[in-house]
Amino acid sequence: MVKPVVFGIGKLGLRLALAFLGVALTAIIVLSALTEIGVGHDINHLANKQERSLTRSVAVASGALYTKTGWKNADLKPVFDLVDDQGAEARVTDMHGVTIQTTPGYGSVRTDDQFATPVRVHGHVVGVVTVKFNDRGLGAVVKQFEQQRLKASLGAAGIVALIAVAVSLIISRQITLPLERVLAAIRARGQGNRSMRISHAKGAGVIQELSLAINESSDAIDQRDRLQKNLVANIAHELRTPVAVLQASHEAMLDGVTEPSEENLWSLRDEVLRLARMIDDLQRLAAAESAALQLRLEPCDLAEIAATAAASLADSFGAAGVSLTRKLRPAWILCDRDRTREIVVNLLTNALKFTPADGQVVLETGHSGRGMARLRVSDTGIGIPPEELPRVTERFFRGQRSSEMATGSGIGLTIVVELAHAQHGNFDIASEPGKGTTATITMPVVKSAERRAKRLTSVPATDPSGQRHGSAASVH
Prior knowledge:
alpha+beta; Helix Hairpins; Heat Shock Protein 90; six-stranded mixed sheet; rod-shaped; disordered N terminus; disordered C terminus
């Protein structure tokens, strides 16, 4: 289903743009309201102050005219001219409330905006001045100011709204377009298009990281698919030979062409064992991937585990003419004994495969500092080319020279990494072609209290060769 696109940003982008616009307009309305309240109050206060001042001035001027002739003959025209200039209307009454004189428009003005001030002469009240303010003069100025302020506020709101729309559309486009590309890539891969990639992995912060992560995960999945296809092809190729031999030999025996002699039966057994090894490789990989769910962690001496593993391979090293040197120093770790032994066996077996006769393999254990124990296997084998080194731990990966030295499915180091990570360990490998390879496992050391508890329930062991840990020995 194709979603509608508005302004090139899609439905999600439109919602974001409207949300941004709503926030901007809300901010404008709130700011305008606060400004209206604050400025309006100040303007009204100032206008009232000016009106009161004018009323007092009229009262003072009227009192001055009263002192000369009294109200009967007082000429209030100069005072009323002043009032008229200010756009107001006025009335003067005596102390008994009798009107002395008013401006012409006083009676027609209906307003609450009026002020009354007593007229004092020598400290005595002789009358009252009442001034009404209408829509002329100061009142007109205030009203005009309020109208202009309203227009300015509306204009500013319109400009800010346009800016908010433009900015929100731009930001929404920057957010939604990368997400639309990510969604399109995911949908395409879900429909079987494995070659789909996000061509323009752009965006802000985590959005760009998401696009790059989608591409990287797609590349990793494709790489794994290729490796698995290669594995299937390799296994099919290697299965073809033993299966063909078994089929041909059995048919020959059934047809009476050959006798089921001991030699022929042993040959068939070798082919069966070859098939069993292939199946065992696949089972070991599956077990390593689920090791975290099956571990039985306990305090163990890494040197003891390494010594046991080395002793089990002594005959293999002797037959290959490769020396195995052990430099084992105690290092207690919290681990699964069987799984850790499998790590050591895999590393030693891998080193043995790629080390020619008269070569040397060194097995070391001990503390590496910062609360970590170290297991290291070094060899003087053929080494690994730099371009292949980052891939040696990938499932089913086999280097170009692997077939020259040994057979296998290419999962030995994959199993090592899976088992090490399952026990909170790390794996590192360094190599130089023609000089050898060094593989290192680091795992957290166990606390002293746990180690002492383990020693109380265990008997100090020696490795099968009869040597205590911490010594160095060679097996040829």
